[in-house]
Amino acid sequence: MGDKVIIRTVPDITIRDYSKNQTLVIERPESANVELEIDQAKYFNFICDDIDKHQTDVALMDSWSDDAGEQMKIAIDTALLADVYADVDSSNAGNSAGAISGDIALGTTSAAVTVTAANVLEVIVNAMLCLTENNIPETGRWVVFPAWACAKIKLSDLKDASLAGDGTSILRNGRLGMIDTATIYSSNLVASVTDGSDTAFHALAGHPKGISFAAQMTKMESLRSESTFGTLVRGLNVYGYSVLKPTALVDVYIVKG
Question: Which residues pair with 195 in a beta bridge?
């Protein structure tokens, strides 16, 4: 914690017209370095009493440590998803989204996009359109939807295997895969807020250019307790993240229909 990761960015290359026998203009691209500060940390610290350890045939410390690792991932993902949507470019959020169109409805407070099985594919396509209008590459795009929204996808027209281009319906294999140009991910950790009588979600779409994340488990240790008969197990995970390209992220503000 307190360290900095230097991220090398890719410069924009200028494309010029060419005429026969002309002298070529030489460009010297410079990659601006971005500093990602490792400024956040989470830990766990638990004790396994010797009596509990003696009276069970389960490796308590191992199983508890595994669970602590899973809970650590959940806590960090929750913190990240609850934060980064606020840094999305204005052309990729709200009900006037689209750097070119300016009329794409991605939802806003009191006017969220109601997602149903009938329109969920349109919602995804609109998010991808916002990325396209900002000239974001198609390869590597992703969408993180709450589980209920992914269920709407399974009930959409894509439940017909022939429409999805697969040999087996997504209702049979449960695999969402790619829709339009994005890989679809399901998460229970998508940020949610209370909007009137509804629970609204800030579903995220984007591209790897949009965000950078770094984490490391810097401490993982076990030691005997000084105050009781037991073994302490504790771990420290430090991490940091930063939105590098706001136009490569999309905030889709949705409610369940």
Answer: 198
Cα 72 to Cα 74: distance, rounded to the nearest angstrom: 5
- Determine which helix (DSSP H) or strand (DSSP E) holds 4, and give its type and residue range: strand 4-8
d(CA 139, CA 208): 9
- Unique residue bearing structure tokens 């229909």: 257
CA-based nearest residue to 254, from 206, 185, 217, 201: 201
Model-level pTM greater than 0.85?
no
Strands 192-195 vs 249-256: parallel, antiparallel or unpaired: unpaired
3-state helix, strand, coil split of the chain in percent (to 5) is: 30, 35, 40
pLDDT digits (tens, 9 = 90+) for 134-173: 999 999 999 999 999 999 998 887 765 444 455 555 655 5
Helix, coil or strand: residue 254: strand
Give 230's contacts (C-beta < 8 A, 6+ positions apart): 47, 48, 49, 50, 53, 224
| C-beta atoms surrounding 108 within 10 Å | 17
